[in-house]
Amino acid sequence: MKYEAVIGLEVHTELQTKTKIFCSCRTSFGADPNTNVCPVCLGLPGVLPVLNKKVLEYAVRAGLALNCEISRFSKFDRKNYYYPDLPKNFQTSQFDLPICEHGYLDVEVEGEKRRIRITRAHMEEDAGKLVHHGTSITDSDYSLVDYNRTGTPLLEIVSEPDMRSAKEAVAYMEKMRAILQYVGISDCRMEEGSLRCDANVSVRPVGQKELGTKTEIKNINSFKGVERAIEYEAMRQAELLEDGGKVVQETRTWDEKEGVTKSMRTKEEANDYRYFPEPDLVPFTVSDEYIENIRKSLPELPDARKERYMKEFGLSSEDAVFMTNDKATADYFEAAVDAGADPKACVNWLMGEFASQLSTDGIEIAKAPVSAENLAALLKLISKGTISGKIAKKVFATMWKEGGNPEEIVKAQGLVQISDTAELSKLVDEVVGKNPKAVEDFKAGKKKAVGALVGQIMKATKGKANPRVINELLNKKLQSL
């Protein structure tokens, strides 16, 4: 029997406010354990929370960008459960009256467009962080708790079970991250936990409308992890059903090292959390004027930027998606084009040599040592024929390691491309004269013989000869023999 996966995601993003959602403690990442805390976020008796206005603004910004309806009347609730990283033994969240509802996100996977519906987006506080002393939560001898993250404002964005593959889930996550970055509400650094997701996965026989029993995979913090975890879990469930077994509704964790999901606990239902209205926070209203003012302040979003890049710069849909799925990349690309870089050449470099260096150094594009203006200057040297593409890679490596202007590096290292036909004609004559076998191969119809001769000339000029001019001169010479 053939099965299909049914996937819904719960995306949690930390909002980049300076202070926490209900107190004035700082939200800065990387502080010493348990230093950004106070009686309010530690849940000590007698304290009263106060809603951070910026959190509400950011939630509305996100909701509008995700095509949601914004609730005019909303409130907070207590979600009751016990866990060591939750000092109050309840989480202040939103239950039946969330701030945002009924949105959607359009994604494209392998040329096919899909609309993923968004059920809701609600504000809540983050829990603390458990530091496990072992390879994972399932095999640690003990865990320590850092409460610095407790009370950091979160937006939880819940999708409908509209995704049918791990690739669709990743595309949804990538698009979500881009939108949240564009509207300026989160840095979405998955490695720091400011963007993470829980994946609800079930399988069912192809053609069946009824949903299968789902499992929830908690706190996946990388796109690669999302894809691998969902693929593994869907396969696990399908094999279990094929063997006559039964899927149990439960919460599972993703073990990145072993590449498997592992059972943590049986899955709770909403009534297990005993939700009730938060008595220390009054319900609040949001006016039409407030919403419209935020709507007017929204920037150009990824889809609009993608369409503009295709129309204005002639990029393919795939290239435009790559350029706009990360705001910092899009900003860098646009700055380079404004500085005179050819758009398509710039895309090729950003997806190739540039991306490779970022990956090798493990840094984001915002921290790249080569500025957009200097990359544009390098690309202009190639287009003018001053240097070849091969030499450009050497110059780029120097720029990356030592900094500097590409023109100055080219002059200092004597890397200017040789395009003088008289000079190159002499080299062509010499190389042809020394390689009678290659000449015979060419006459016999073996066109690849030209490549070997080009290689010798490039070697003699240390890569500085203009390949286009060499090929023209060689073909002319060989055809005259």
From TrEMBL:
GO biological process, one term: glutaminyl-tRNAGln biosynthesis via transamidation
Keyword field: ATP-binding, Ligase, Nucleotide-binding, Protein biosynthesis, Transferase
InterPro entries, A to Z: Asn/Gln-tRNA_amidoTrfase_suB/E, Asn/Gln-tRNA_Trfase_suB/E_cat, Asn/Gln_amidotransferase, Asn/Gln_tRNA_amidoTrase-B-like, GatB, GatB_C_1, GatB_Yqey_C_2, Gln-tRNA_amidoTrfase_suB_CS
GO molecular function annotation: asparaginyl-tRNA synthase (glutamine-hydrolyzing) activity; ATP binding; glutaminyl-tRNA synthase (glutamine-hydrolyzing) activity; transferase activity
Domain of life: Bacteria
EC number, as in UniProt: 6.3.5.-
Domain Asn/Gln amidotransferase: 331-478
Catalytic reaction equation(s): L-glutamyl-tRNA(Gln) + L-glutamine + ATP + H2O = L-glutaminyl-tRNA(Gln) + L-glutamate + ADP + phosphate + H(+); L-aspartyl-tRNA(Asn) + L-glutamine + ATP + H2O = L-asparaginyl-tRNA(Asn) + L-glutamate + ADP + phosphate + 2 H(+)
PROSITE patterns with a match to the protein in the record: GATB
Gene3D superfamilies hit by this protein: 1.10.10.410, GatB domain, N-terminal subdomain (1.10.150.380)
Subunit structure: Heterotrimer of A, B and C subunits.
Function, as annotated: Allows the formation of correctly charged Asn-tRNA(Asn) or Gln-tRNA(Gln) through the transamidation of misacylated Asp-tRNA(Asn) or Glu-tRNA(Gln) in organisms which lack either or both of asparaginyl-tRNA or glutaminyl-tRNA synthetases. The reaction takes place in the presence of glutamine and ATP through an activated phospho-Asp-tRNA(Asn) or phospho-Glu-tRNA(Gln).
Protein family membership: Belongs to the GatB/GatE family. GatB subfamily.
NCBIfam families: gatB, PRK05477.1-2, PRK05477.1-4, PRK05477.1-5
Protein name: Aspartyl/glutamyl-tRNA(Asn/Gln) amidotransferase subunit B
The species this protein was found in: Dialister succinatiphilus YIT 11850
